[in-house]
Design a protein that fits this description.
Number of strands: 5
Radius of gyration: 18 Å
Family: Belongs to the GST superfamily. DHAR family.
Bound molecules: glutathione
Protein name: GST N-terminal domain-containing protein
Order of helices and strands: EHEHEHEEHHHHHHH
Shape: globular
CATH architecture of the largest domain: 3-Layer(aba) Sandwich
Number of domains: 2
Catalytic activity: RX + glutathione = an S-substituted glutathione + a halide anion + H(+); L-dehydroascorbate + 2 glutathione = glutathione disulfide + L-ascorbate
CATH class of the largest domain: Alpha Beta
Strand order of the largest sheet: 1-3-2-4-5
Strand content: 5-15%
Distance between the termini: 35 Å
Largest sheet: 5 strands, mixed
GO molecular function, one term: glutathione dehydrogenase (ascorbate) activity
Keywords: Detoxification, Glutathionylation, Oxidoreductase, Transferase
Number of helices: 10
Length: about 260
């Protein structure tokens, strides 16, 4: 690990639950926490910072790059006040040690009890089980709220035809989410922030930056609940500490836009 780029912050080591292995095949949606798992897990805080591999910024050494899944994991660590030690990997030139750890070559990857675990769904679930306090649990019926926003955003961002319906599709997802928040907010699970917000927040951050830059497109002011949701999440200390730099976000999406 000597070649790793590492900026020590805080963190742990914990046991990876085989019971959540099956979650790896799921798409990137927030998986509701299962009570039966909680009782079998310890909630002792880690004695050592948790090692977590994330995407490096392409412009600034030892800074998080434009990966919303990595930010989701770091946000979860921050909100749970867990110490962590991030290792920044250049995805355009993956070091050998990283490919050995995760042959799929994807980030984030977090080390639980000497075992490297990829995938933000699995990592955040395992963190919830190992460190249930403060809880970020989301009930099953709310777990998929807003889950189509990211894919419709990418569809619109990549679109070259203004009349192909992709803008409308995104607006429709954002509007439904706005209505949901108006009724149930301010967060997806009501008064308290949850895993659903920590997954959606980084995606909305990418959406806002990329669409302004590439399409001169803004989230409509009429979506007031969504606007204040974004403002609330983006101004949290945990978010500011873990967010990507706007120019990294812009550069990260360029290949998709110019495809
Ligand atoms: N489903 C995965 C997705 C992770 C993912 O796609 N990460 C991207 C960076 S945002 C990656 O590592 N891509 C590999 C590459 O660019 O070579 C998760 O939730 O962790």
């Amino acid at each position: 690990m000597a070649a790793m780029s590492s900026a020590r912050v805080q963190v742990s080591a914990c046991a990876f639950s085989a019971t959540v292995n099956r979650l790896r095949s799921r798409p990137n949606v927030v998986v509701p926490f299962r009570k039966s798992l909680r009782v079998s897990m310890s909630s002792v805080p880690p004695s050592q910072p948790l090692e977590v591999i994330v995407k490096a910024s392409v412009t600034t050494p030892n800074r998080l790059g434009d990966c919303p899944f990595c930010q989701r994991v770091l946000l979860t660590l921050e909100e749970k006040h867990l110490p962590y030690d991030p290792k920044f990997v250049d995805l355009t030139n993956k070091p050998e040690w990283f490919v050995k750890i995760n042959p799929e070559g994807k980030v984030p990857v977090l080390k639980f009890d000497e075992k490297w675990v990829p995938d933000s769904d699995v990592i955040t679930q395992t963190l919830e089980e190992k460190y249930p306090s403060p809880p970020l649990v989301i009930p099953p019926e709310k777990a998929t709220v807003g889950s189509k926003i990211f894919s419709t955003f990418i569809g619109f961002l990549k679109s070259k035809d203004p009349n192909d319906g992709t803008e409308q599709a995104l607006l429709s997802e954002l509007s439904s989410f706005n209505d949901y928040l108006k009724e149930n907010g301010p967060f997806v699970n009501g008064k308290e922030i949850s895993a659903a917000d920590l997954s959606l927040g980084p995606k909305l951050y990418h959406l806002e930056i990329a669409l302004v830059h590439y399409k001169k497109w803004l989230v409509p002011d009429s979506l007031t609940s969504l606007k204040s949701y974004m403002k609330d999440i983006f101004s949290r200390e945990s978010f500011i500490k873990t967010r990507a730099q706007p120019h990294d976000v812009i550069e990260g999406w360029r290949p998709k836009v110019e495809d």
